[in-house]
Specification:
single chain, alpha+beta, six-stranded antiparallel sheet, five-stranded mixed sheet, 6 helices, rod-shaped
Length: 393
């Protein structure tokens, strides 16, 4: 593949020999004075154009030799084109600076950048307009933003590699970073995109960096208001509810006196009990709390049918952790029991272990006093652990 370059060098050497012979002929009087005027300058200009055109073709054919090709241009250009030589050398040195650092690019990439530099100089020589290309992009490191890694402090920044990142567009604006939240595109402050070298840019994902939200799906790198590249933002999968066994607080209740005198007087009472559980305080996606209440009826077995009866207010017996919601109740909603009191002490009424709402009722029916109904007659409810579906943030 070096054959084309060698031919180019041979052609360039022949052109230089002809130019030297031309100049000697002028100096020794072998040619007319008129022949030694503008024509030689035109030839020199044509030679510069030819050198650039040949090099541009060589870069297309053999990109792996981009350094030798560009160095050959600097050598082959006429001495009168020092400004162009200096410009091309600056482009070469910038490319070499990137190639010798952490910039990862192919020979084709550098050859394209060199070709652009030569085309710019050729347009200048031919007095033709030249449209500046945007900065060249190679890659993002990493190649995507995983929000889960950001939240765990495993990913704090993103590096962008490319070329000419310090270039300004026609309005004097440099590279800009945009954030997409759904379909809404928002420019980020210039301070969020650091450009330490012309081949590298960095943006921060920390607390003072790019403001990622649950709706962020894309970052866009732009120049001259045109996208250069995009970087996907990968949101973590939505959480799913998990079956969870939770503790329910106990509740106590003294039903009001509703009939007869207040003394059961050793006649029972017959006690009816029921506990109920409901979910409440709805929020998006579920509920926050579980509520329970208990009903108790204690009725004397003989005239005057002394009775204490009522239901407690609903009481919070479980609250989901901050940010979490209850999406389903997996256990029973009620438990009942009935018994006849035969003493003046508390009675424990076992209901069941796991699989029932209530583990046991602890009740007081009759007492040794004459006014227990509405005062001492009471129930305390102890619940089993309860299964729910809990959605954690």
């Amino acid at each position: 593949m070096r054959h084309s370059r060698n031919n180019s060098k041979a052609a360039s050497s022949l052109r230089r020999s002809k130019c030297i012979a031309f100049v000697l002929a002028c100096l020794t009087g072998g040619m007319g004075a008129g022949a030694c005027g503008v024509g030689d300058l035109v030839n020199v200009g044509n030679n510069a154009v030819s050198v650039l055109q040949t090099a541009i073709q060589d870069l297309d054919i053999n990109s792996a030799e981009w350094q030798d090709i560009v160095r050959g241009v600097i050598t082959d250009l006429p001495a009168t084109e020092n400004d162009i030589k200096a410009d091309i050398d600056e482009v070469l040195q910038r490319a070499l600076g990137g190639a010798q650092t952490e910039l990862i690019a192919t020979a084709d990439f550098f050859a394209r950048r060199m070709k652009t530099g030569l085309e710019r100089q050729l347009a200048k020589l031919l007095n033709q307009p030249f449209i500046e290309p945007p900065p060249a992009f190679i890659n993002f490191v990493p190649d995507k933003i995983e929000v889960a890694r950001v939240k765990s402090n495993d990913l704090n920044s993103v590096t962008i590699f490319g070329y000419d990142f310090d270039k300004k567009d026609p309005t004097g604006t440099g590279l800009k970073l945009f954030i997409m939240n759904g379909t809404v595109e928002t420019p980020l402050p210039d301070t969020m995109l650091a450009i330490p070298t012309h081949y590298k840019a960095v943006f921060n994902l920390g607390s003072s960096g790019v403001p990622l939200t649950p709706g962020t799906n894309l970052l866009i790198l732009k120049w001259n208001n045109q996208p250069i590249s995009t970087l996907a933002v990968i949101q973590p999968p939505p959480p799913t509810p998990k079956e969870t066994l939770v503790n329910l607080s106990s509740i106590s209740y003294i039903p009001p006196h509703t009939r007869g005198d207040q003394d059961f007087d050793g006649n029972g009472p017959v006690v009816e009990l029921e506990a109920r559980l409901i979910a409440g305080d709805g929020v998006p996606g579920g509920v926050r709390n579980l509520y329970a209440r208990v009903y108790m009826k204690a009725k004397e077995t003989e005239d005057d049918w002394t009775t204490a009866e009522g239901a407690s207010e609903w009481k919070v017996v479980y609250t989901a952790p901050p940010g979490a919601v209850i999406t389903a109740l997996l256990g029973p909603y009620t438990s009942q029991a009935t018994y006849t009191d035969t003493n003046h002490t508390a009675d424990t009424i076992a209901v069941g272990d796991e699989g029932s709402l209530v583990k046991r009722f602890v009740c007081v029916g009759d007492t040794s006093s004459d006014y227990e109904a509405g005062n001492a007659t009471s129930v305390n409810v102890l619940f089993n652990k309860y299964r729910i579906m809990l959605l954690q943030p």
